[in-house]
Write a structure and sequence with these properties.
mainly alpha; 33% helix; elongated
Length: 67
């Protein structure tokens, strides 16, 4: 039976990603439109924050592999 995924907060604590705790606002383009990532997702904060947020979200939803 599969375990339910960790919460976002549990994942942040597990990998000591404390700077992600503060959260971030959606980013706007110079024209005032919502900024998007290269694959069309909404961009949160600067490039680094947005990338690590998305990576953390992906990691927490991926079940561990059996070795």
């Amino acid at each position: 039976m599969l375990e339910s995924p960790k919460t976002y907060r549990e994942t942040i604590e597990c990998y000591a990603l404390d700077f992600l705790k503060k959260g971030a606002d959606l980013t706007l383009t110079p024209r005032g439109d919502l900024a998007l990532t290269k694959d069309g997702g909404l961009k949160l904060g600067d490039d680094n924050y947005s990338a690590l947020f998305r990576l953390t979200t992906g990691i927490r939803q991926t079940p561990p592999s059996d070795s």
